[in-house]
Design a protein that fits this description.
- Keywords: Carbohydrate metabolism, Hydrolase.
- Pfam families: Glucosamine_iso.
- It comes from Paeniglutamicibacter antarcticus.
- This is Glucosamine-6-phosphate deaminase.
- InterPro entries: Glc/Gal-6P_isomerase, Glucosamine6P_isomerase, Glucosamine6P_isomerase_CS, NagB/RpiA_transferase-like.
- The chain is built from seven helices and ten strands.
- With about 250 residues, it is α/β, with parallel strands linked by helices.
- It has a single domain, classed as Rossmann fold (3-Layer(aba) Sandwich).
- It has a seven-stranded parallel beta sheet, sandwiched between helices.
- β9, α7 and β10 form a beta-alpha-beta unit.
- α1 packs across α2.
- The longest helix has 18 residues.
- It is globular.
- Bound molecules: fructose -6-phosphate (F6R).
- Fructose -6-phosphate binds next to loops.
Length: about 250
């Protein structure tokens, strides 16, 4: 695991963009496959990738993307769905074609249907092979929506959102009662299959989760600790998020 500590969030975004582009450049044939995250953290990174596109150093026109997670009960056209968030905050920014953006489908008539959709999504990820997976981290140590207690080998599936995560995400909805209770998320095993992981964390509110993930024991109590298992994990932090490291 490589841990890069930047002076601030802007510098962290630049380091993370380099780690992503270097990871994508390792593919020798075919189109790149990028694993993408929503949330506030990767926005600076996406802006840096957009700069690389503008400078002619990157081109995402033919890149295939797979999102980490989606809310259960929201159609992909819903404004608060992660699909729409990524269309606005990623596709339009870096020139990734919307039809090349894959997101889990958490909308269906029954739990069984959503389970089947989740299994198909996982199989599509395996078939494509993700070159670089971008990750943020929750203050409770989640990656994707793998909340504490997630199996270290889990695959894409339905997960109940923790009270903390629903509270953290209430800012995007009309209050906590409108936040869905469940998500479909790539599993920890699915995430670990990516050839490179680029985990970004900024801000003092992430310091405890980062210290536990990087220096604590490998444990489902801190799902992000699985990055310790990955042979090519790049962790990019600002000084505030790195403050708890020994
Ligand atoms: C988003 C996701 C989450 C976020 C995490 C951090 O697709 O999977 O794990 O990365 O909740 O969110 P922010 O960046 O908003 O602090």
């Amino acid at each position: 695991m490589e841990v890069l500590i930047a002076a601030n969030a802007e510098e962290a975004a630049k380091l993370a963009a380099t780690a992503v582009l270097d990871g994508l450049a390792m593919r020798t044939s075919g189109n790149n496959v990028l694993g993408v995250a929503t949330g506030s953290t990767p926005l600076g990174l996406y802006a840096e990738l957009a700069k690389a596109v503008a400078n002619g150093k990157a081109d995402f026109t033919n890149t295939l993307a797979f999102a980490l997670d989606e809310y259960v009960g929201l159609e992909g056209t819903h404004e608060q769905s992660y699909r729409q968030t990524l269309v606005h905050e990623l596709c339009k920014i870096i020139g990734l074609r919307e039809e090349n953006l894959n997101t889990p489908d958490g909308f269906g008539d029954s739990e069984a249907q959503i389970r089947t959709q989740s299994a198909h999504y996982d199989a599509a990820i395996t078939a494509a092979g993700v070159d670089v997976q971008i990750l943020g981290i929750g203050a409770n140590g989640h990656i994707g929506f793998n909340e504490p207690g997630s199996s270290l080998r889990s695959r894409t599936r339905i997960k109940r959102l923790s009270a903390k995560t629903r509270q953290d995400n209430a800012r995007f909805f009309d209050g906590i009662d409108s936040v869905p209770t469940h998500s479909v998320t790539q599993g920890l095993g699915t995430i670990l299959d990516a050839r490179r992981l680029v985990l970004v964390a900024t801000g003092a509110h992430k310091a405890e989760a980062i210290a536990t993930a990087l220096e604590g024991p490998l444990s489902s109590a801190c799902p992000a600790s699985v990055v310790q298992l990955h042979p090519d994990a790049v962790v990019v932090l600002d000084e505030a998020a790195a403050a708890g490291l020994k």
